C-alpha cells in the first residue's frame, strides 16, 4: 500500500502527527477511526474526513458495469489465425488475444515446429510483429524463412516478413523477468507499437535449476513471470504462447491379491505438464501436442484446459517442409 505523502493533499503538520502515531500508509489512515485520528493529531474532524474522501476518490478503482467490460473486451480483442486449417477450426477461428496459451508435449513432439509455423504466418500473412524468446538456442531463421517461402509470397516480401520476427535469446529466468519488465515499460510509451504475438520457447529450461531446491523461490519466480504476462496480455491485447514439456507418469494398476501375479506388469500411463501443480492452472488454455505413432509425421493436438473451448476436443496436423499443416 502507498505511503502517505504531501502530494496527496496532506499538510506537513498533519503528516508529521500521523507518523508520530504510527500511521504511515494510506491503508493505515483509512482503517483508523476518524474521531481517534482527530484527537491524536489535534486536527479538526472535518479535515480528517476531507483527507479520507480525497484518498478514496483519487486512489480507488472506479467501478464499471459488467456489460461495459464485456463490450470493451469484444471491441479490443482479436483472433490470430495460426495458418493451420485444422487447428484454426479447433480454436474457432484462431487464438484469442489477451490470453496466455501453453503448448505442451513430450520432447520431439513438434512444439517448436508449431511455434515456427505460427510465427511465419503472423509475420508473413498477417503482417504483424512477433517477439520470439528463445531459451534453448535452437531458433532457426532458415527454417522459418523456408516456411514463409512455401506460402507463395513474393521473394522481396519474404525478407520483410522475417524482419517482423524479433528474436531474443534468454539464458535464465532472471533475464526473462528483466526482459518482460523492459517490454512492459516500452509498451507504456505512446509511440510504441506492441508485438501482436510473444512466444516463449520454452519455460522448463529456466525452471530446472530450482527443481532441486527445498525453497519456494522457483514457484515465486514462475508466479511473477505469469502475472506479468497476463497483465500485458490483458492491457495491450497481446497473445502470449509459452512452451512447456510434458512427462509420462506410469502407475501400477490396483488389483486384488488373487489377480496380483497375473496383472503385476499391467500399467497405465498419463502425460502431464511439467512445472508443478501451481502451473496447471496458470495458462488460460493448454494444448497438448503428441505423436500419433513413433514414425508418422502426424500430430494430435488436444485441448486439455480452456476457458471457452470444450476440453478433450482435438485435431490432427502434419509436420512437413511447409511447416505444420
Automatic annotation (TrEMBL):
<dbReference type="InterPro" id="IPR051988">
    <property type="entry name" value="HRR_RAD51_Paralog"/>
</dbReference>
<dbReference type="GO" id="GO:0000724">
    <property type="term" value="P:double-strand break repair via homologous recombination"/>
</dbReference>
<dbReference type="InterPro" id="IPR047323">
    <property type="entry name" value="Rad51D_C"/>
</dbReference>
<dbReference type="GO" id="GO:0005815">
    <property type="term" value="C:microtubule organizing center"/>
</dbReference>
<dbReference type="GO" id="GO:0005524">
    <property type="term" value="F:ATP binding"/>
</dbReference>
<dbReference type="InterPro" id="IPR020588">
    <property type="entry name" value="RecA_ATP-bd"/>
</dbReference>
<dbReference type="InterPro" id="IPR048943">
    <property type="entry name" value="RAD51D_N"/>
</dbReference>
<feature type="domain" description="RecA family profile 1">
    <location>
        <begin position="76"/>
        <end position="246"/>
    </location>
</feature>
<protein>
    <recommendedName>
        <fullName>RecA family profile 1 domain-containing protein</fullName>
    </recommendedName>
</protein>
<dbReference type="GO" id="GO:0007131">
    <property type="term" value="P:reciprocal meiotic recombination"/>
</dbReference>
<dbReference type="InterPro" id="IPR013632">
    <property type="entry name" value="Rad51_C"/>
</dbReference>
<dbReference type="Pfam" id="PF08423">
    <property type="entry name" value="Rad51"/>
</dbReference>
<dbReference type="GO" id="GO:0140664">
    <property type="term" value="F:ATP-dependent DNA damage sensor activity"/>
</dbReference>
<keyword id="KW-0238">DNA-binding</keyword>
<dbReference type="GO" id="GO:0000400">
    <property type="term" value="F:four-way junction DNA binding"/>
</dbReference>
<keyword id="KW-0539">Nucleus</keyword>
<keyword id="KW-0067">ATP-binding</keyword>
<keyword id="KW-0227">DNA damage</keyword>
<dbReference type="GO" id="GO:0033063">
    <property type="term" value="C:Rad51B-Rad51C-Rad51D-XRCC2 complex"/>
</dbReference>
<dbReference type="GO" id="GO:0005657">
    <property type="term" value="C:replication fork"/>
</dbReference>
<keyword id="KW-0234">DNA repair</keyword>
<keyword id="KW-0547">Nucleotide-binding</keyword>
<dbReference type="Pfam" id="PF21794">
    <property type="entry name" value="RAD51D_N"/>
</dbReference>
<keyword id="KW-0233">DNA recombination</keyword>
<dbReference type="GO" id="GO:0042148">
    <property type="term" value="P:DNA strand invasion"/>
</dbReference>
<dbReference type="InterPro" id="IPR027417">
    <property type="entry name" value="P-loop_NTPase"/>
</dbReference>
<dbReference type="GO" id="GO:0003697">
    <property type="term" value="F:single-stranded DNA binding"/>
</dbReference>
<dbReference type="GO" id="GO:0000723">
    <property type="term" value="P:telomere maintenance"/>
</dbReference>
<comment type="similarity">
    <text>Belongs to the RecA family. RAD51 subfamily.</text>
</comment>
